[in-house]
Design goal:
Length: 225
């Protein structure tokens, strides 16, 4: 007599677990705005199986850059703003004159933890060159937790930046974490990689060095989202 009762009692728990799993899946596959129409910038590009939209960069679509989508024309976002380590509001203008590898992450994101040391190593490799790696935490609320996270991972080359209300994430049409945008010297998005990567891999450094040196000519005409 007790076994059927136990099953009945477990039913609400199972329903709750299923509901929470659905919420988690929705969060990871829906833009922070909650609007399915707010898709990732560049999804309208015709993307090949390699992830490259602009075939001029197909030779670089190997290894950790295989999922990178390069836009046929740079994409202009709203003026992004976020918080620095001192608690001040700053924007992309502080990186003017540099290419920017803009990585969105959070402390609860396991792939973010795995790739963070390689982002730190990438910045160390390009120190003194016109390229900045910007790791932007999307953790809600206080900056204490993401700061502690970086300290635990012994991140020394990356400055701390925080997007506590996910406003920058929404303004760029973010679709899950981690997501990394490649910005040109005018702050326009020229590429996007959804998911994790080993950012200090040789193929990544070779591509970015070619970009900095001018061997890769990016389109100068930009399109607004």
């Amino acid at each position: 007599m007790t076994k059927p009762t136990s099953k009945i009692r477990l039913l609400p728990i199972i329903i709750v677990i299923a509901f929470l799993s659905g919420v988690a899946a929705f969060y990871m596959t829906t833009p922070p705005s909650g609007n399915p129409d707010d898709t990732v910038s560049g999804q309208e590009d015709k993307v090949s199986s390699t992830g490259i939209a602009d075939t001029r960069y197909a030779s670089y679509a190997t290894g950790n850059l295989k999922k990178m989508v390069f836009h046929k024309t740079p994409k202009i976002h709203k003026e992004l703003s976020f918080i620095n380590a001192a608690g001040e509001s700053v924007g992309l203008d502080v990186f003017a004159g540099n290419y920017v590898v803009l990585n969105f992450w959070a402390t609860w994101c396991v792939p973010c933890r795995e790739e963070m040391p390689s982002l730190d190593a990438l910045q160390k490799h390009f120190n003194g060159q016109p390229l900045k790696v910007v790791a932007l935490s999307t953790d809600r609320g206080s900056a204490d937790k993401p700061k502690k996270f970086l300290k635990e991972l012994n991140i020394t080359e990356l400055a701390f930046f925080h997007d506590p209300k996910s406003q920058a994430a929404r303004d760029t049409g973010l679709f899950g974490l981690p997501t990394t945008l490649l910005l040109d010297m005018q702050g326009r998005e020229i590429g996007r990689l959804s998911g994790e990567a080993v950012w200090d891999a040789e193929e990544v450094k070779v591509f970015l060095e070619a970009l900095i040196s001018g061997d890769l000519a990016m389109n100068v005409e930009a399109s607004k989202p």
